[in-house]
């Protein structure tokens, strides 16, 4: 088959060598050139991508190194914290042991304090009881001494019997009068009978008086000691201060039962209150 081609030049047909097959021979060259260009482009793209990946990889490696460094530092810090925690735990255990010891000592001290308070209370009760007994003894001695002195002064006629209407008790005579009188009048009446208002010298005498007053009120042989118009205390008619071992202030307010005293021949007389 004839492969002669033609080309147009200066208006004339010119025969071209190769003809139609010459153009087909240029196509592989173009394809190769295109492939080369594509390859170059892909190479450039891959180079750019690789460079970017390398940069990112370097950054990641740097961050990884930084993380490792930070992790190492944090590990060291964590170790220090663990040591501090162990030290704190040990300190807390020691403090707890000391606190337990202090609590034990405190309980022992409280127990000793309770025992001492109990012993002090018992001692206080004994002292109070001893003082009360001493007060009673003093009152008894004073009363007996007063009676003895009165007996000596009046001729020591203690063996005489009590007058009519008088009640004997422990060597003295008592009169529970039914006449109304003031304290001063009652005392004068006692002195006229060589007696005085009753001086309570003991619990036995107080019981005797309480059994015989019959629910009525009587004067006691007590005077109020006043200073600046205020009552500072009380004393018996014999001048001895009142001892509260036998009678309390409440008893003095609520009880006016009294008689006079007659030591030996002395008579005991009590005037009823006007109230």
TrEMBL record:
<dbReference type="InterPro" id="IPR016186">
    <property type="entry name" value="C-type_lectin-like/link_sf"/>
</dbReference>
<feature type="coiled-coil region">
    <location>
        <begin position="99"/>
        <end position="133"/>
    </location>
</feature>
<keyword id="KW-0472">Membrane</keyword>
<keyword id="KW-1133">Transmembrane helix</keyword>
<dbReference type="InterPro" id="IPR016187">
    <property type="entry name" value="CTDL_fold"/>
</dbReference>
<keyword id="KW-0812">Transmembrane</keyword>
<dbReference type="Pfam" id="PF00059">
    <property type="entry name" value="Lectin_C"/>
</dbReference>
<protein>
    <submittedName>
        <fullName>C-type lectin domain family 4 member G isoform X2</fullName>
    </submittedName>
</protein>
<dbReference type="InterPro" id="IPR050828">
    <property type="entry name" value="C-type_lectin/matrix_domain"/>
</dbReference>
<feature type="domain" description="C-type lectin">
    <location>
        <begin position="169"/>
        <end position="245"/>
    </location>
</feature>
<keyword id="KW-0175">Coiled coil</keyword>
<feature type="transmembrane region" description="Helical">
    <location>
        <begin position="29"/>
        <end position="50"/>
    </location>
</feature>
<dbReference type="InterPro" id="IPR001304">
    <property type="entry name" value="C-type_lectin-like"/>
</dbReference>
<dbReference type="GO" id="GO:0005886">
    <property type="term" value="C:plasma membrane"/>
</dbReference>
């Amino acid at each position: 088959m004839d492969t002669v081609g033609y080309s147009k030049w200066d208006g004339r047909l010119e025969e071209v060598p190769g003809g139609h097959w010459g153009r087909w021979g240029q196509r592989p060259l173009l394809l190769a050139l295109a492939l080369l260009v594509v390859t170059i482009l892909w190479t450039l793209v891959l180079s750019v991508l690789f460079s970017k990946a390398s940069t990112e990889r370097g950054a990641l490696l740097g961050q990884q190194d930084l993380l490792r460094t930070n992790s190492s530092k944090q590990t060291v810090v964590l170790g220090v914290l663990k040591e501090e925690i162990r030290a704190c735990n040990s300190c807390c255990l020691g403090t707890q042991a000391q606190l337990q010891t202090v609590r034990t000592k405190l309980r022992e001290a409280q127990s000793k304090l309770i025992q001492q308070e109990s012993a002090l209370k018992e001692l206080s009760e004994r002292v109070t009881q001893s003082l009360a007994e001493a007060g009673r003894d003093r009152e008894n001695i004073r009363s007996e001494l007063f009676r003895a002195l009165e007996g000596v002064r009046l001729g020591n006629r203690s063996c005489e019997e009590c007058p009519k209407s008088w009640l004997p008790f422990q060597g003295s005579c008592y009169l529970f009068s039914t006449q109304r009188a003031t304290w001063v009048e009652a005392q004068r009446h006692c002195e006229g009978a060589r007696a005085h208002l009753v001086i309570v010298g003991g619990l036995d005498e107080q019981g005797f008086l309480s059994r015989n007053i019959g629910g009525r009120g009587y004067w006691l042989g007590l005077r109020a000691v006043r200073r600046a118009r205020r009552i500072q205390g009380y004393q018996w008619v014999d001048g001895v201060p009142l001892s509260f071992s036998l009678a309390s202030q409440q008893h003095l307010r609520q009880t006016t039962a009294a008689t006079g005293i007659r030591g030996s021949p002395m008579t005991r007389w009590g005037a009823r209150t006007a109230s």
